[in-house]
Amino acid sequence: MSSLVERLRVRSERRPRYALDESDDDLPLRVGAGKGKDQQNDAPAERIEREDAKEEACQRCGKSDNLVSCSTCTYKFHRKCLVPCLNITSDKWSCPECVSPLTEMERILDIEVLEAPREDSSSTEPRSKKMERYLIKWKGLSYIHCSWVSEKEYSEAANIHPRLRTRLNNFRRQKEAMKIEAERSGEDIVAIRPEWTTVDRILASRKNLVGDREYYVKWNELTYEECTWENESDITVFQPEIERFNEIQFRRKKSGDKGKATREPRQFKESPTFLSGGTLHPYQLEGLNFLRYS
Which part of the chain is the Chromo domain (predicted)? Predict the structure, then answer.
C-alpha cells in the first residue's frame, strides 16, 4: 500500500492532465458498432466446465439432493452450504468461484504494457510477448486502495461478465482521445491526482466489528459525497490530521460535560403560561417537572 501511495504522490515536472471527468461506463459506443465486435462480446458466455466439479453432488459437502446449479459454471451447491446461506428466487445465480471482485469496479484509471514473464527463466532469448495490466478504482473505496489487475485476471472475469470488456474498450477510446489532446496541449496524463490521496480533514470515527479504529475521511479536492471510512493503519502518514480530530473531539466532550454539570434545572412552580384551559394540580406539576428533566 505504501509503495502505491508514494508512487501516486510523485508530481510531474510538466503540467499534468487528468482524465477522470468521464466514466468509462458511460462513454457512447462508436457509430456503427451495433453489428460489430462490441455487440458480439455482450452475448451470453458459455458455462465454464470445472474439471473438479462433483457429479450431481454439492461442491462443499459432497452430498446430493436439493442442489442449486451455478448459471456460469458446472458447480452445484446446497443453499445451506453457502456462506451466507443462499436465498434467491431467480434462476440466474453465480457461485463464489465465478463472482469476480471486478464486479465491484468503479472505473478503469490507467493501462500499462509490461514484458510478459518468460516461461523458461534460463532462456537468453529477448522477450517478445507483451502483457497489459489495469489500474482499478473500486466502488466505495478511496484512491489509496486502487490496485493493478493483470490482463489475464481481467479477461477471465470478462468471459463471465461481458460488460467488463465493453468498459475496457470504452476506456481505450477515451485514453486515445486524451493522448491526442495531451500532445496538442503539452500536458501529461495522470491517472490519480496526489491531492486525492491526501487527507483534507477527518469528520468522524468509529470502531469496526473487529475492534479496529476507523476514521471518516474527507479527501483534498474531492466532494463530501466521496468521503470514505478508512482504517487507522491505512492513514498513519496523516497523523497530524488524526491528532487534530481527536483534540477537537476531546474539547467538545469536555465543554459538554462542563455545561451539563453547571446547568441548574429550573422547575415550574406554577402552571406554565403556554398551557391553556385551566391550571395544573400539584401532582401534575410534579410530573411535568419530572418529564422535563428526566
Answer: 103-183, 197-257
The pLDDT of residue 40: 40
Q: Name the pTM for this structure.
A: 0.57
* Identity of residue 290: F
Q: How far is the C-alpha of 165 from the C-alpha of 232, rounded, in Å?
A: 35
Given a cut of 60, is residue 89 above it in pLDDT? no
Side-chain half-sphere CA neighbours of 58 within 13 A:
15
Q: How far apart are CA 200 and CA 220, in angstroms?
A: 5
What tens digit of pLDDT does each residue of 256-273 get?
666 555 556 677 777 777
289 pLDDT more than 80: no
Q: Distance between CA 109 and CA 167 in Å, rounded?
A: 11
* Helix, strand or coil, per DSSP, at residue 68: strand
Query: The domain at 198-261 falls in which architecture?
Result: Beta Barrel (2.40)
pLDDT surpasses 50 at 71: yes
Give the pLDDT band (50/70/90) at residue 218: very high
What cell was used for 221?
A: 479536492
Dump strand ranges (E) for 52-197: 68-69, 76-77, 105-115, 130-138, 147-150, 188-190
Q: Which fold has domain 2-29+103-116+128-190?
A: OB fold (Dihydrolipoamide Acetyltransferase, E2P) (2.40.50)
Give the integer Cα–Cα distance in Å for 41 and 22: 23
Distance CA 226, CA 222 (A): 6
Q: Where are the domains of the chain?
A: 2-29+103-116+128-190, 198-261
Type of residue numbered 271: S
- CA–CA distance, 157 with 146 (Å, rounded to integer): 18
